[in-house]
């Protein structure tokens, strides 16, 4: 049954003159309609957030924590309902959709705790001879209105990673969720409203990047922009934002190295999930697997057995492993990339075609570093297996990328593990795991074209606050 949703702006649940259909990504059927915002309504949302900030910035930490704690609890109460929504609008398999809700609840729990811990530091003024007889310290203050722009692949938890720390730090938020997956954000707005968040602190504006996104990015009252998405859009945001703080979480072509001394069964099982969860539509999806020549035959055998055992189809099926990609355009793009790789000499070991709206989990062999599936971000259910002999050279091959988000290595040799930590130019190195590992309190973000700044509640709060220094002259 189709449901018509309203959106939350300035504490009011509103309809607008225009609506947009939201489709079930597996069946193609419309299951919801949402109100679209134009520039005028987006400006209204920003104005509401700016007014709310004048009071909310002074809200005691325990009050902010109480709202965030309640939101965490309500997310768990509504977990099955919200997981179903994620499965419908994002095409994410049920098991991963439910996991996303649980992670989101944990993100808000972390934010509730961090709201009570935000503090500054004393400064050793007399470390300088010019600072004698002075008492110094700094405090952190909220920035103001946070403009948050989020993608389709984690329509709840990537919203949570922007909204929860913003609230914890005393900021207000105007959110533009992805147009293909806006319902999860509306459900979060319902949760925050029920949790007692004051009017205007959280506002949801649904619409195009050209209208809603640009208005948020360029508006002078949006004092910080936090964005997750493509490199191209991130670059445009940097150009348009002006003098304000910007956090960008962009992309990767994640690699994992499998050394000869690795536990191959564990590594293969983990690599399968890391490559194909959410149809590979994750910034840290495993895309490149470099396997030591001595064990590549055995690893590939185990890996392919597990790939062919994956269940593809309707994400609402509780046993589903891989659902549809977000839309036909992305499905056609990844198919074109696979066909191009084959034309350039790669071979298909599994998958390589679509079944209805699902692109089958695809494994490529015989690839070269200049193929799109290797040097660009695939953002689809495609992984390449590559043999190597020289460990140092392979670290260089992992680094030979415009991206640097996370990487993984499987080895029992501590020296090789630590060498990887020293040499890999990425934001995170996962030892005996894949780059897809993330928990929501850790600092998360990348180097090079993978972005600017770090998420993870405490680290996002630092990005969402300004430092104010206080110096008392005792002379």
What do these coordinates show?
There is one protein chain. This protein is of the alpha/beta class and 475 residues long. It folds into two domains: 270 residues, 3-Layer(aba) Sandwich (Aldehyde Dehydrogenase, Chain A, domain 1); 187 residues, Aldehyde Dehydrogenase, Chain A, domain 2. It has 15 helices and 25 strands. The strands form seven sheets. It has a seven-stranded mixed beta sheet, sandwiched between helices. It has a six-stranded mixed beta sheet with strand order 10-9-8-11-12-24, with helices on both faces. The chain has a three-stranded mixed beta sheet with strand order 1-5-4, with no helix packed on it. Strand 8, helix 5 and strand 9 form a beta-alpha-beta unit. Helix 4 runs parallel beside helix 5 and helix 9 crosses helix 10. The chain is globular and about 70 Å long. The N and C termini lie far apart (73 Å).
